[in-house]
Each structure stands twice: as structure tokens, then as C-alpha cells.
Amino acid sequence: MPEVLLIEPFYGGSHQQLMDTLEPIIKDSVKFTLPAKKWHWRARTAALYLSQVIPKNDTYRILFASSVLNLAELVALRPDLLNLKKILYFHENQLLYPVKKQQDRDFQYGYNQILSCLVADKIIFNSKFNQESFLSSIDTFLKLIPDHRPKNLAEEIRPKCCVIYFPIFMPEMCKYIEPDNKSRRLHVVWPHRWEHDKNPELFFNTLMKLHEEGYEFKLSVLGQSFKDVPAIFEEAKAKLDKFIVNWGYQSSKAEYFKCLQSADVVVSTANHEFFGVAMLEAVHCGCYPIAPNRLVYPEIFPKEYLYNTDQQLYKMLRKFCKSPDLVKSHKVKVDLEQYSWSVLESQFKFALGIT
């Protein structure tokens, strides 16, 4: 009989990968998921639906869910789940999601996550940055309430928190080297979602500036695109067409890793990132990382890989366009082992209370 409930209201991407990784190591578990579509509706309504489809069972003792689930609603609707050990995993937090104007922020998503934390027995974040940015933002976030604001919630939540990095599976591979290696152009890859929070405008504007000044390079733009693609992608594809090697989502993980292997430099321009799976995968494939000195990146990468200003990003890429050998011969100073499942498996087992 199942003892562990695995619940994922947004079963796709890294959310799906974590659930599929945990399920085999838990002997007596049962998984309930919803497809990774219409995220906002999943966050708003999944608890009610799941309260109806999860069968009652006296053998449950642990509930593990991502923070997309409104845990407070679920246990209110299903009091039989209240006494389970309730574990919440934060892939991202809604208190820090970038919006152009504060009035554009939907208060409910962040508020749901705070309520879920108050109900949970253990809260796991995928990075220190994710944990600290969430806890330090609670008081400011609650000031949006016009009056009668709750107090000291961060202090109540913090003792239940810990960090367990998201596990990355690194395939065995050798760095792909083109013939006549020393004369080839710098190959730049951007493997992120095609959305505004990844700040593609900065990335493409930097490359277009390099192009206008006569610098040559190769370009691979990977990652997933959705219905509303920022206009900069169409503009960049037209202006940088002669440099493009790969454009768009790769059909398989093998093809994706092959693209990463062929590249020299991986760039992030994100305004919103709590872990950065794509950057670490690219580093594993031999890429030199360039990332902003903010968000989770200082936690992962030493200072030499980080830029503080748009101009610094431009200068770094210009230097490598002039001398691609600087990155081709460089060994990246990042300990990837700490993000591997071989290291993290025992941490997840301990958190779940299983052997």
C-alpha cells in the first residue's frame, strides 16, 4: 500500500524530471499529476481537483509536492491529509517574479505560496538564492495588503527551510572539436525559454552590435518557445541569419546536448532564474559560462564568469570573438558533482525520511 504521495500540478520540464527521479527510489509511492499547461490555472485550481481524485488511504504518511500546489487548500479540503509529513519543493518563488509595474503582480500566487509554507512541515528550495529571496521578500510582499497585515511570517517559516539542489543528469561525452580548430569562429549558444524574463533583448542587441562592428561568430539559439514569442527573436533571426547554426527547440535531448557540445560560450541574460539547469548542462558539455552577477548565478559561478553591466557583457563577448582560443582551451572552475544525482540522492532520501 502506498505510503508517499507525490503531487505535481504542473507535470513538465524540471517539475516532471524531479518527480520521475524520486518515484523509483520510493518503494511505496503513488503519483498524482496534471499536464504542464496553463500554469496560472494550475496554481489557482489544482488543489480542488486533486482533493477529489486522490483516494483516501490510511497508509499515507508523507506528502511531497511542488510549490505550484496550494497546500493549504488541499489539506483544508482533505483533512485526512493534515497529519501527513508535508514537504514542499520550490523550483521557483512568486514573490520575486519580475513585473514591469507592481500593480501588474497577481498577489494571489505569492500569497498561496506563503500559506503553503505555513501548512508544510518541511520546505526545500533548489538554491540558497531561491530560499533567501523568498524569505526576505515576505514582509515587503505583504505590505501590498491595505491594512491588518500578518506579522513575523518569515521567522515562523525559516526553521522549516533547507536547500537541496535540483539534480542534473550529466551524460558521458567528449567535447566536439571541429577541424582547423584554431581558425574557427566563436560559437555562442543561448539555451533558454523564449520569454521576456530571460531578457533576450539584451542578448540579441549585444550580438547585433558585435555584428555591426565587424565581428564574426556562430550562433545557436535553443530553448522552448511558446505562443507569445518576444519580437526580438524575429528581428535577430533576420539580422544574424548568416551566423545561425541552430535555431529553436531541439527534437531530442541527444540533439540538444550535441548542440551544446559544438558551442564555445553559453550566455545568460536572465532577469529571473532560481537555479539555471541549462547553464550547468552547457558547462558540462564544455561551454564557458557568461552570466549576470545577480540572481542564483553568484552561488554557482566564480566572479570571472559574471558581468555587472550590459557593457561588460559586450566586452567579454568581443574579447572572445577576437580570441576564441581563450575559451576553447579554458577549463571551467565549477564543481558540477554537487548537482549530480549521485550526491543529491541521499539528501532527498533523508528529507523524505526513507532509507
Q: What's the helix and strand layout?
A:
Layout: E1 4-11, H1 13-22, E2 29-35, H2 39-53, E3 62-66, H3 71-77, E4 85-90, H4 107-119, E5 122-125, H5 128-142, H6 153-157, E6 161-163, E7 186-190, H7 200-212, E8 217-221, H8 232-239, E9 244-247, H9 253-262, E10 265-267, H10 277-284, E11 288-292, H11 297-300, E12 306-307, H12 310-322, H13 325-328, H14 341-352
Parallel strand pairs: 1-2, 1-3, 3-4, 4-5, 5-6, 7-8, 7-10, 8-9, 10-11, 11-12
Helix pairs in contact: 2-3, 3-4, 7-8, 7-12
In short:
39% of the residues lie in helices and 16% in strands.
Describe the structure.
This protein is α/β, with parallel strands linked by helices. It is 39% helix and 16% strand. It contains 14 helices and twelve strands. It has helices spanning 13-22, 39-53, 71-77, 107-119, 128-142, 153-157, 200-212, 232-239, 253-262, 277-284, 297-300, 310-322, 325-328, 341-352, and strands at residues 4-11, 29-35, 62-66, 85-90, 122-125, 161-163, 186-190, 217-221, 244-247, 265-267, 288-292, 306-307. The strands form two sheets. A six-stranded parallel beta sheet has the order 2-1-3-4-5-6, with helices on both faces. Helix 3 packs across helix 4 and helix 7 packs across helix 12. It is globular and about 65 Å long. 39% of the residues are buried. The model has no long low-confidence stretch (mean pLDDT 93).
Features:
355 residues; alpha/beta; six-stranded parallel beta sheet; globular
